Amino acid sequence: MTTQTSTVTLHPRAADVQAQLSALLERRRAGYSLEAPFYLSEEIFKADMEYVFGRHWIFVAVAPQVAEPGDFITVDVGQDSILIVRDDDMNIKAFHNVCRHRGSRLCDEHQGSLGNIVCPYHQWTYDLEGKLIHADHMGDTFLREQHSLHKVHLRNLEGLLFICLADEPPQDFEEVAARMRPYLAPHKLNECKVAAQVELIEEGNWKLTMENNRECYHCVGNHPELTISLYEHGFGAQPGPQNAEGIARFEQIVKDSHARWEAMGLPSARIEELDTRVTGFRTQRLPMDRAGESQTMNTEVACKKLLSDQFTEKSLGGLSFWTQPNSWHHFMSDHVVSFSVIPLSAGRTMVRTTWCVHKDAVEGVDYDVANLTAVWNATNDQDRRLVEFSHAGAASKAYEPGPYSPFTESLVEAFCTWYVDRMRAGVSGGR
């Protein structure tokens, strides 16, 4: 058996790191998991933050988190803290959470509400559009207009908030947005409210978190709560006599469901672009088993008030939307659940899960938070353990890249292909 171990030293020169990373990228074997250094090396983690999280559109929040003027959230991406705030004109803006005076962090809390943005150090004060409006003792020649907060690129895709830290963000996001709006708009996420949010720390590399999400090969036996609403052959199966009847039945259910939903104005067809563009994405609306209404323990809606008055039935399937490098989302008739993956170190990752319901839904009357969150709280904790098992295994001298199933792990391969392509572009100085 040939094993691969990290050769990245504790304090390598930048040129040495680049050379080692380039070699690892070039010898990546298609259809196999990545070599151990991609999961373990802090130097490669730094490259991930520069070439992936520093240059691409990152999903960070949902618009209902900043529902009213002055509402804000902060998001840390590597060394950068980002302040997202809704201004008085109801526009959502993003800024570096750094005072233009001497660099103090402006807002230290994850979320809250404010009238103006006031630096806690010397009370420099900015309005909600980032303009400096007050700075004592700076003299008559000081020009406030030259000291506005540094802006961060932000896009609101039907209630999903994406930021890009690059000076020039990938331009293909506008095309992705145009293609996705018809799918997402009927669920009216912009008009929802946050019913619950949970942050989970996984002691594993962020790529293992994403790889685990991109397949359901592991679901049977690991996710008893989630699989209640999943059709057995809905997450892949090897064709053959033993599966032929089940696959054919599932494909017919999908075909019939798509026809019904499309007639209702709900786009449902699969779009597969995870590894074919800079802003990789995938979507599809799929039926759910049993009552087929929502991802709950009994597969019935968790919220009595549906997301739109246009929804005339509860069984609208689950619209899934994946984006590279760090998110997945499930849109149902009664609620939306979104997942944002934020790397913390080579061996530590934060998964933030947010559940949204209709803004007029009343807790304890229309929905129960425990019921709403039960499936994914259980599933996230189960996935945490699996990611941690994988990270521990990658550290073993016996670890070597293993083959992906072509029937159940094709989306894992798509993620790794996208990642390797984007890292190669970063190392080579391309885009």
From TrEMBL:
Domain Rieske: 59-163
GO MF, one annotated term: dioxygenase activity
Gene3D superfamilies, sorted: Naphthalene 1,2-dioxygenase Alpha Subunit, Chain A, domain 1 (3.90.380.10), Rieske [2Fe-2S] iron-sulphur domain (2.102.10.10)
PROSITE patterns in the record: RIESKE (PS51296)
CDD domains, per database record: RHO_alpha_C_GbcA-like (cd08884), Rieske_RO_Alpha_N (cd03469)
InterPro entries: Rieske_2Fe-2S, Rieske_2Fe-2S_sf, Ring_hydroxy_dOase_asu_C_dom, Rng_hydr_dOase-A
Cofactor annotation: Fe cation
The entry's keywords: 2Fe-2S, Dioxygenase, Iron, Iron-sulfur, Metal-binding, Oxidoreductase
UniProt cross-references to Pfam families, sorted A to Z: Rieske, Ring_hydroxyl_A
Family: Belongs to the bacterial ring-hydroxylating dioxygenase alpha subunit family.
Protein name: Aromatic ring-hydroxylating dioxygenase subunit alpha
Protein source organism: Azohydromonas lata
